[in-house]
Amino acid sequence: MTDEEAPGAGPRQPGGESGPAGGHRPDAPAPRTGPWTRRWRRVPPAGVDAALVLLAFVDAYVPPFDLTAGNILSTAAACGALVLRRRFPLVVFLASLPAALLLDVVVAPIAALFTLADRSRDRRVMAACAFLFAAVSAVPWPLSAYTPDEQTWALVDFVYLLASAAAPVLLGQLVQARRDLSRQLAETEQAREHERALHAQAAVARERAQLAREMHDVVSHQVSLIAVRSAALQVAAHEAEAREAAGTIRALSVDTLDELRHMVTLLRASGGSGSELTPQPRLADLRRLVETSGVEAELTGCLPPEIGTPAQRTVYRTVQEALTNARKHAPGARATVELWRAEGRFGVTVVNTPPTRPGLPLPGSQQGLLGLRERAELLDAELTTGPTPEGGFRVRLSIPERHG
After folding, report:
1. Domain contains 239
2. Hey, what's the torsion of the CAs at 228, 229, 233, 236, to 10 degrees?
3. Where are the transmembrane segments (predicted)?
4. Are both 56 and 162 inside the same structural domain?
5. Pairing relationship of beta strands 296-300 and 334-342 according to DSSP bridges
6. What is the C-alpha to C-alpha distance for residues 163 and 159, in angstroms, rounded to an integer?
């Protein structure tokens, strides 16, 4: 065997580089090998070939035989062809058969048969070669020099030689199977590493998307409320110092909303829709949300308290976003928040009237409704938004009953 035929090693291509059939890619994890395998790999292929050719010549020439031209040529061809056994295993094996027929040569055909079994995947060819080797080695040559009794014993020799030929074939197949298994384990480990990296990236993306939603739903809600209240204070205050302080608060709130819009946009660019991780708001918090929204709003209807937490949170965020948009874009408008349940679905409808005074120049990130649609998709729900015939705006969330 050569260094690349050792267990766990891949076939070597011309030029000494491992090919894709059995070598290891630079980015693939190297399979675990034992100390003997590592030492065997350090032996140069040329040294292994030279030792094998020398052993084949010793096997052929040490026993006394007739130095005829046929014997010398067949032996030299069988032994010398072993240098090419890795590139042309079948041809080298066939070249060793004349020496096996004329002389009791074993090393050359056995080595060629092992290499053929290690490199070939056609089991019919390997079985035929093993049968051919046993037949050639068992046939008495020349046939006229043997008595009928001796020729009968040739059949017994054929059986033993066939069993001997099965050994290198099975060993070559074992080395091939182990090499394939080593390559598959390396590819599996590489695939697992890639899968773990993708899973980590997906987890980060989900967390970023959730953080973007939370920043928009919670922080922007509170900051926009501060901006609205400070603007009202700036108009109603009688003292110049109070109006200046209220104007400063309003300007800082507007700048904060603008920065928050950029942060949410960046987070959404690197994130994606994901499942909820830490649900907090519930239906019981809706009344307080409506009362502190800064909009004259009325809460009607009710939903059962046993509705699932993700659905409760989606309803809460829908109401929060709808009231925030009404406060920012429809100053002075009134809103109606209706909780409903009918025909296998439940949800909420928020409708606000047209504005009664000019709106404040607050920045809009266009991320709120996008976040609501993402939440609705997680529950297979329907979110519809649009203006009303009276000039107001309507937001309606419809969730299937199975999520209740």
Report:
1. no
2. 70
3. 90-113, 125-143, 155-175
4. yes
5. parallel
6. 6
Only one residue has tokens 């928040």, namely: 337
Residue 394 CB coordination number (10 Å): 17
Q: Which two tokens stand for residue 205?
A: 């993306």
Task: Strand 334-342: give its sheet, edge to edge.
Answer: 296-300, 334-342, 345-352, 393-400, 382-387
Q: Report yes or no on 258 lying in a domain.
A: no
Domain boundary among 196, 226, 254: 196
Cα 143 from Cα 139, distance rounded (Å) = 8
Residue 263 vs residue 161, higher pLDDT: 161
Tokens coding 63: 């026993």
Question: Looking at the domain assignment, is residue 237 inside a domain?
Answer: no
Residue-number span of the structural domain to which 69 is assigned:
3-196
Query: Taking all residues of the chain, what is their mean pLDDT, rounded to a whole number?
Result: 77
Residue range 301-326, pLDDT digits in tens: 988 878 888 888 889 989 998 998 88
CA atoms within 13 A on the CB side of 13: 8
Query: Which residue among 172, 196, 220 closes a domain?
Result: 196
Beta strands in 253-325 (DSSP E): 296-300
What are the start-end ranges of the E strands in 263-333?
A: 296-300
174 and 306 within one domain? no
Q: Is the pLDDT of residue 296 over 80?
A: yes
Give me 65's structure tokens: 């035989």
Q: Which residues pair with 350 in a beta bridge?
A: 337, 395
What whole-number distance in Å separates Cα of residue 291 and Cα of residue 295? 8
Start-to-end C-alpha separation, the chain = 69
The reported pTM is 0.41
Tell which residue, 281, 301, 298, has the closest CA to residue 290. Answer: 298
Q: How many domains does the chain have?
A: 2
